[in-house]
Specification:
Length: about 325
């Protein structure tokens, strides 16, 4: 292999820039040329490329977002779109591709390989931590830290006014951000899509806190909870419980942005480095994961089909320590 390409695709996540830097500099150190693809698969179809050298990836390790931009591409979902994309890569002499993205991006990469023979390796870049085969995805730690920081500030005002706060965090299908945020911020309870939420049980829990003369309470709600988002849950609780004045905060997109934490920068650096090594060793259709602090190769088939499960002991721990 003489030349590879790197791109970011799907939802953006802090740490993607550190991943691009690691891919580029690892490849260059091995005498391999690197091409950046702007705007994910859409840029691949439109041949929106940039040759990357050592200095093109200078001063980006600490930046949120992705300097190569990211996109969702309907065209790439078609056979014709993928044929155009592959022809563009081949014209540039690209033989291998590193995709930093989520499960959709890996499905697209797998199609590119099976239809056109371009070798593909993925790095899990998503704040949701919902890919199977890795303990952490790039961006998750930063998103949790951003949410915890916001909730520390909410707690100050909640406590001053004796209020009950419902705080909605991201997670349409997965409660990882909610769980870790809840543990780190000392929340009273965490509501996640993976378990059934019982409003009556939540009210009993809140009443217990009120009896103990707690001055405030914070409930973390993942946006995809089965009882709805924070606004819905607050309304349902308020129909039966008015012990505290109730407020709702939806954290929204602030969780996606910001400078990546040291953890995410290191994770992305290790994964990007390993992705290039695996690609050059002949691997394809694999995601690089981190298991027990080691880099591992996970077949795309496994990474996208299964979900890691939430640790039920940690959910319990939130309530024990509340
Ligand atoms: P993420 O990678 O964050 O999960 P998406 O699910 O939006 O984000 O996927 C990113 C892009 O990958 C899509 O816009 C599309 O171009 C491509 N893609 C997703 N699924 C497929 C598929 N089954 N076949 C081909 N391309 C796909």
């Amino acid at each position: 292999m003489k030349k590879i390409a790197v791109m970011t695709s799907g939802g953006d996540a802090p740490g993607m820039n550190a991943g691009i830097r690691a891919v580029t500099r690892t490849a260059l150190s091995m005498g391999i040329e690197v091409m950046g693809i702007y705007r994910g698969y859409q840029g691949m179809i439109e041949a929106d490329f940039i040759p990357l050298d050592h200095f093109k990836v200078s001063n980006i390790i600490h930046r949120g977002g992705t300097f190569l931009k990211t996109a969702r591409s309907q065209d790439f979902r078609t056979v014709e779109g993928r044929a155009t994309a592959a022809a563009n890569l081949k014209k540039e002499g690209v033989e291998g591709l590193v995709v930093i993205g989520g499960d959709g991006s890996f499905r697209g990469a797998a199609a590119l390989h099976s239809e056109h023979g371009i070798k593909v390796v993925g790095c899990p870049g998503t704040i949701d931590n919902d890919l199977f085969g890795t303990d952490y995805t790039i961006g998750y730690d930063t998103a949790v830290n951003t949410a915890v920081h916001a909730i520390d500030q909410i707690r100050d005002t909640a406590d001053s006014h004796n209020r009950l706060f419902f705080v909605e965090v991201m997670g349409r299908d997965a409660g990882f951000i909610a769980l870790r945020t809840g543990l780190a911020s000392g929340a009273e309870s965490v509501l996640v899509p993976e378990t059934t939420t019982y409003i009556d049980e939540l009210i009993v829990h809140l009443q217990k806190g009120l009896k103990m003369q707690k001055s405030s309470a914070i409930i973390i709600v993942a946006e995809g909870d089965d009882e709805g988002g924070a606004i819905d849950v607050a309304r349902k609780v308020n129909e039966k419980f008015t012990g505290w004045e109730t407020k709702v905060t939806v954290l929204g997109h602030i969780q996606r942005g910001g400078s990546p934490t040291a953890f995410d920068r290191i994770l992305a650096s290790r994964m990007g480095h390993q992705a290039v090594k695996s690609l050059l060793a002949g691997a394809t259709d694999i995601m690089i994961g981190q298991r027990n602090n080691e880099m591992v190769e996970v077949p795309f088939g496994q990474a996208v089909k299964h979900h890691e499960t939430l640790n039920p002991h940690l959910l319990e721990l939130v309530e024990i320590l509340a």
